[in-house]
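Lab notebook, page 48
Experiment: co-folding of the full assembly
Goal: obtain a model of how the components sit together before planning crosslinking
Operator: M.T.
Materials (sequences as entered):
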Amino acid sequence: KNEVEQSPQNLTAQEGEFITINCSYSVGISALHWLQQHPGGGIVSLFMLSSGKKKHGRLIATINIQEKHSSLHITASHPRDSAVYICAVSSQGNLIFGKGTKLSVKP
Amino acid sequence: GAVVSQHPSRVICKSGTSVKIECRSLDFQATTMFWYRQFPKQSLMLMATSNEGSKATYEQGVEKDKFLINHASLTLSTLTVTSAHPEDSSFYICSAGTGYSTEAFFGQGTRLTVV
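Observation: model returned without errors.
Model output:
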């Protein structure tokens, strides 16, 4: 079992839909990251969380430390949100990455 | 699946010396390599993007003369931290792209400590 599990693996949505991507982990962490990777490979760091909730524009990230679970929400999704979203946890000085969720938002 | 090997995983060096970090794609040709840095309790930050055979593109605020990136082949990229200082102590990670997919193939990361 992977230490960081994301679901779903693939997600197709219509423009305007509310989207949720989930991340569960099984190790002790100091922080959880949500990353966005666009075609071509470049990665943008969206959030770093150690507790609670963070919001940036249409993106919201939450984390429940007790349940070892985090969610990334996208409100009013847009085709430009199409990308791979990666959950990564900082654990004992290392970064452990989830396999990513490929999101396609159709116009 | 595709494998990217990053070496060394940990390195401690003296202030003023140079350190080279290697990132190898073991079973695919990496046309693009990305180098990231993460300071303690901070998000992962892209440092530079390199394409095989051409000069790296550095992000704003990253000193190109200090962080030398070489991507001379389709399977190897190196990051050299020159004249390292304690403030360069960080976690460095590479990722490789094939140019044909959106998948990310990451190295294991290198924890650099400059004393």
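Interpretation: The mean pLDDT of chain B is 85.
Next step: discuss with group before ordering constructs.
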